[in-house]
């Protein structure tokens, strides 16, 4: 129910009978001819609005297609909030914020609304809480129809509850008046029994499968999916990337310009919103299926008269659609984003071969996937469903890490970071390391998100490298330890916004900390390579404000420069062991990657380089009750789905798995064992535990007796479980150095003749926890006023 009336837009259409080569009509008559045609038939003044040369109706239709939602919802919302459909004479400002909430600008408004409608479809594990601008709240039943929930949720943004209720009531009437109760749920067809898709690029092109479809809520390219789990079609995790609703293919031999072709025949729409892309609606026996080809560099010439047009073009299997590129919502290497939908829902063309049922069926915009590739593709269908999963998740537990740490990865048989975002990896191996195990990238790939891991205003990156006796052959003579670039594939070879550390084997072997700023100005900080084979510590640091960059090897500063123009963006990925996916390999063993949010001092890096033990990221004690608990986990049998937190063996109720939690300890000093129990989809569990000590600063007070103009007796009180205690006194609130002395309940104090009669006192327990300063003295509250002559 919406506003007390039956929701008109949740009616399901009758099953569709496939017709060979029949031009699609959306199955819903009012939008035949697209949104722009509908606006024209309504004689809406919005039909005459163009944004950057693109008609408003085409923007609505393109955004709806991009986010895979029904355009009718957007049209009905525009009429509900600002009468944008029925008003024959719009003021010039009406399209700037038609939803009366959210960002400014028509294009940004439609993008925002479409994304929020998609997100709002759920799923929801508990009541949906709407928070209104007047401070009130409204609970929605999570079992309500998802389309009702998402509309109600959207209309609540930046509104009070009374206005929201009026709009909810109005929406139901508007939808009926505009669309006569036509269904928002597309006509359905059964899944195919035989694969029908060919490879969507030119035969013979070398391809790297860089990102996979996420079976735990394939959202869209932007926006979170409400979980920290990514599972591919084989039930494996630890791949790129969470919430992805398709597959990304990178072409290393021709990143820009690899021909992209139709994977099957159908009616093709060329779109320019959110980059250049083609959506094909298939017909005949495959009616109900759509394939999407995004981030194109350009369209094929045959689309000249069809770009952003509501009329589609028929294409045959293998027909040229355009060329690979990096347009739209992408940051980094050019690639093809390939996506498949069925009955308006996301599906994975690789099917589902993980344990149990496809988790994608838990989401309203996703259905169980089946194998859709035909026999011509150069990869094979898995032999069958995955065997029963009996392996528990691999996980780490970190409590209260140093706030300066952005990433800690120590590669103990997996790429899990104990601090920081999850890695995406493929075909990596492990060898003996500096501390335990080390990772070798080899022919595979290992990337961590560059943002927010690399803080480009200032930061430090350190890692151990096993320098080889001889380096692999390379056409460029360069071998990368790490690299992050906004333009890793640049036809002009400028590589704007890049940060990398590499070994160069040219006329003279050298190590280089290489950066390129946003304007293409490059800078190389280089030193000759005089290192012996074996483990060596490398660190690079930077400061945007001063233009300072440093290269340190084995704890020693070997090169430094200032006033260097540094990058302001470095793309999506921090690549280890290579320049970018598909590029030449260094085949190095790497250990303990540390990234800090500040530029470390030289002595701090030296201590890292001479340490005989790996960094321990967890705190062993705290003076605060609130804990930050990090629980990164990998599971190759369907993903971690549930977590339980415990204190001293007593566990709380299960909750949805996330990589981080906040937990509050009792307000009592002592030792506490923190446990985390993780459960995967098949019921396998892993339990991790760590002990942390709550150690409060001393409880203390200071009073005065025997006060006179020159001195006073201080009466001090301090209690703490960790003895002995010490104290420090000063006439100044911020002394250069505190002079610590054993705690004494009485202390004679001489007033400083050149300062106010105040004394500042600090107390410290045996573990180094400080309390203070506590200030006292006869001049504590004295105010000095200007003298007034009368």
From TrEMBL:
Residues 244-349 form the M23ase beta-sheet core domain. Residues 12-33 are annotated as: Disordered. InterPro entries: Cell_wall_metabolism_enzyme (IPR050570), ConA-like_dom_sf (IPR013320), Dup_hybrid_motif (IPR011055), Ig-like_fold (IPR013783), M23ase_b-sheet_dom (IPR016047). Transmembrane segments: none annotated. It comes from the Bacteria. Gene3D superfamilies: 2.60.120.200, Glucose Permease (Domain IIA), Immunoglobulins. Residues 15-24 have a biased composition (Low complexity). One of its GO terms (molecular function) is metalloendopeptidase activity. This is M23ase beta-sheet core domain-containing protein. It comes from Herpetosiphon geysericola. The lineage of its organism: Bacteria, Bacillati, Chloroflexota, Chloroflexia, Herpetosiphonales.
